[in-house]
């Protein structure tokens, strides 16, 4: 009996260690563009700094993460890239939606993203730069955001029912607070979700990065498919309401045309 209890305790401890390591990897991916500091990782994962540091160091040793000595930041490492290559043959999502993302970037002249839900996050699958004189590049491919941060992420969040979205919003308070516009309380965020549902598109102003705004439209999925959205970002404090509706209409029309082509 004692041996069985000890083995069970080890199994629980091992599972917890794996979950903590995955939380750390996701946190680093969240700050991939500029790198994740130990302090940011600890806050994002709700771990104390000594525990976070031990996990980060182990992941660096395994090449899952890379540590940049100059500014003391962590980034996704070569092993993460190598493992990702093994999934490319199974995923055709990027190839399927790339023409649509490119078309929207061309028509709006704005940097355009394909976002996908990944658990409580949204991850950037594609990024196509627009032709605007000043280009907004707040995200890189592979970067993660808590659902509700950024226009594409908010558009995905708005497709969820209240029973799913409310607890998700309440659980992400600390992670959202690490972003410039992520300090809104849960009720404020729920109001934005309601607005996005009513209008059919989401607007983000300074949530991912200060001085940048975005518009996102969800790709309503068939059962079993990824939850996706396409968004654009611009160097602006906010969008004029008429301009926002026009851009959202351009995104929605391109998504609809792709859906009709698939059905034909």
Q: What is the strand and helix layout of this fold?
A:
Blueprint: H1 2-30, H2 38-45, H3 49-61, E1 65-68, E2 73-76, H4 78-85, H5 93-108, E3 111-118, E4 121-128, E5 144-146, H6 151-157, H7 162-171, H8 173-176, H9 186-199, E6 202-205, E7 212-219, E8 228-235, H10 241-263
Antiparallel strand pairs: 1-2, 3-4, 3-8, 4-5, 6-7, 7-8
Pfam family, one: IclR_C
Domain IclR-ED: 79-264
Keywords: DNA-binding, Transcription, Transcription regulation
Write a structural description.
The protein is of the alpha+beta class and 264 residues long. It has two domains: 2-83, Winged helix-like DNA-binding domain superfamily/Winged helix DNA-binding domain (Arc Repressor Mutant, subunit A); 93-263, Beta-Lactamase. Helix content is 50%, strand content 18%. It contains ten helices and eight strands. The protein has a six-stranded antiparallel sheet with strand order 5-4-3-8-7-6, with helices on both faces. Helix 1 (2-30) crosses helix 3, helix 2 (38-45) crosses helix 3 and helix 5 (93-108) runs antiparallel to helix 10 (241-263). The model is unreliable at 1-12 (pLDDT under 50). It holds the Pfam family HTH_IclR.
Features:
8 strands, Arc Repressor Mutant, subunit A, 50% helix, 6-stranded antiparallel beta sheet, alpha+beta, 264 residues, Beta-Lactamase, 2 domains, two-stranded antiparallel ribbon, globular
